[in-house]
Design goal:
- Helix content is 42%, strand content 15%.
- The chain has helices at residues 10-17, 30-35, 56-73, 84-92, 113-121, 148-159, 171-180, 204-213, 223-226, 234-248, 274-282, 287-305; strands at residues 3-8, 38-46, 78-80, 96-103, 123-127, 163-165, 186-187, 216-219, 231-232, 253-255, 265-266.
- Helix 1 (10-17) packs across helix 3.
Amino acid sequence: MPIIDLHCDTIDRIYTEKSSLLTNEYHVDLDKLRTSDYAAQWFAIFIDTKTAKKTLMELAKEMYDYFMKELVQHGELIEFATNFEEYSRIRSKNKIAAFLSLEEGQIIDGNIENIKKLYDLGVRMMTLTWNYENDLAYPHSSHKGLTAFGKQVVEYLKAIPMLIDISHLSEASVKDIRSIYKRPIIASHCNSRAIYNHTRNLSDDMIRLVADSGGIMGINLYGLFLDGSEVSTINAICKHIEYIYQLGGEDILAFGTDFDGINCDLEVCNAGQMGKLIDALTKLYPQSFIDKLTYKNAERVIMENLS
């Protein structure tokens, strides 16, 4: 069955190591995506602002250019999408749709006009922070919320429109966003804090907020966020899925594997092995539930917000 994954860090890997999207030793490549019948993959432009050697926008553009070159080179298998119509056209040709997100709002360097530049390149979803405090907001380890500039950014994202991804944000920042951004809120790669108490996971209130907004929450496969382990297991993944389902309903669930951004042993070793997880889930839930989790909920958000 089709899969839409809301988050991977593969662009950073292939750009840094000048490797291929077609086949590589990472979690995600085109061969692996085809093996698991991916309908779409959201690829993040991620920059660690503390280690960047160039200006952030310059580096983001270089990563974008490298990724686009890979998409063109392998255009028989994958195409770039920015909206539901393009996604549908790509799927009708039995190709994978590649969506683009931005992970780390500091990349805009305090200039809202840079958001428009990124939007014009095709970026359609954005986190406000990574793990560091920045000009926009405070991360999950903090109790502080959006900055004044961050509130201006959220207003701008509401107007463009661009999807907001609350992954990595503080709870206060998420609540600030909800008061401004009257659109579905995305938590692209997050789990439940009630199941495992890590600040990167979402509290019950945050999960309800995402559900009430009509948004979706991508289940993260990182062992550290599942149960604090160095090993990511299917059993641990299923515990988070069940809890989030009971709290937020079946319309909130999606996948946000965090492939190529996580460093642990994985029972689902890469994108090509997602069938192992789906097989386990089919023993627990009806097909209608599985379809919503694997692609229909994400597809709905794309259709209703990126048309």
